[in-house]
Amino acid sequence: MRLLGIKTSRNGGPTVIEQVEQYVAAHREEYLARLMEFLRIPSVSTDPEGVRDTHRAAEWVRDLLGAAGLEAELVETPKHPVVIADSGPPAGDGPTLLLYGHYDVQPAGELDLWSSPPFEPEVRDGRIYARGSADDKGQLLTHLLALEAWRKVGADLPVRVKCLIEGEEEIGSVNLEPVVREHRQRLACDYIALSDTAKLDDDTPAITYGTKGLVYKEIRVYGPSADLHSGSFGGSVSNPGNVLADIVASLKDGDQRVTIPGFYDAVRSISPAEREQMAALPFDERAYLKSLGSPSLVGEAGFSVQQRRWCRPTLDVNGLFGGYMGAGAATIIPAWAGAKVSMRIVPDQDPKSISQAFDEAVRRAAGSDVRVEIDTLAAAGAYMCPIDSPGAQAAARAIEAGFGKAPVFVREGGTLPILPMFKEILGADSLMMGFALPNCNLHSPDEFLVLEDFHAGIRTAVHLPRMLAELQTEPKSAVGDTAR
Ligand SMILES: [Zn+2]
Question: How many angstroms is it from 135 CA to the middle of ligand 1?
Answer without folding.
Answer: 4
